[in-house]
From TrEMBL:
Protein name: Fluoride-specific ion channel FluC
GO biological process: cellular detoxification of fluoride
Binding site for Na(+): 73, 76
Gene Ontology MF terms in the entry: fluoride channel activity; metal ion binding
Family note: Belongs to the fluoride channel Fluc/FEX (TC 1.A.43) family.
Catalytically driven reaction(s): fluoride(in) = fluoride(out)
GO annotation, cellular component aspect: plasma membrane
Gene that specifies this protein: fluC
Free-text activity regulation comment from the record: Na(+) is not transported, but it plays an essential structural role and its presence is essential for fluoride channel function.
Length: 123
């Protein structure tokens, strides 16, 4: 029974995460423009914060299934990050591609660690 409950929680979190990614990505692109893939960057940072925070809080199997694997897993998108970077390279925007890669990876680790540490201290 526990496996079924976890699977349903992942499904529910994934549904919310996927819709949130679609809406937030579109909104950020409309506001920030398309000089860099700000929409993808935004959803990845938000998902990283969610995952880091709930992991830091040691919230347990059910919450991590819903919020970590489900919500954060569907919210974030590594494949779109890669595709955006490839498009920047193909368009000859090498500096922007490098900023996208380094910014996403370095800031992503920083966001994860910060939210992990913060919520670990609260619990």
């Amino acid at each position: 029974m526990t496996t079924l409950v976890v699977a349903v929680l992942v499904l529910a979190g994934g549904a919310v995460g996927a819709v949130t990614r679609y809406v937030l990505d579109g909104y950020v692109k409309s506001v920030a423009g398309k000089s860099l893939p700000w929409g993808t960057f935004s959803v990845n940072m938000l998902g990283t914060a969610v995952l880091g925070g709930f992991h830091g809080a040691a919230s347990g199997t059910y919450v991590e299934a819903l919020m970590g694997t489900g919500l954060a897993g569907a919210l974030t998108t590594f494949s779109t990050f890669e595709l955006d970077t490839v498009h920047l390279f193909q368009d000859g925007k090498y500096g922007r591609a490098a900023v996208n890669v380094l910014g996403t990876l370095l800031l992503g680790f920083g966001v994860f660690i910060a939210f992990h540490a913060f919520l670990r201290e609260l619990t």
